[in-house]
Predict the 3D structure of the following.
Amino acid sequence: MDMNQEVVPISKFKATCLALLSKVKQNGISILVTRRGEPIALVTPPPPPKRPESWLGAFQSTGNIVGDIVSPVLDDNEWEAFGG
């Protein structure tokens, strides 16, 4: 028997089904249902929900730098603010 598994006879499972299913969901422990000591079903918790991908970094590695991104676009004397 797995440490994260509980063995339950089918009669107990039938009588306490809803409570056992809640226990599986809350604790993440599987339940092995048996009939006369013979395994007949394994109740396991559902997989964790898939997390949506974050929009942060969605455009990573999609652009190309094709020129100088540090130097000004125009020379100082071409700007009207400098009186050029």
Remarks:
- The mean pLDDT is 86.
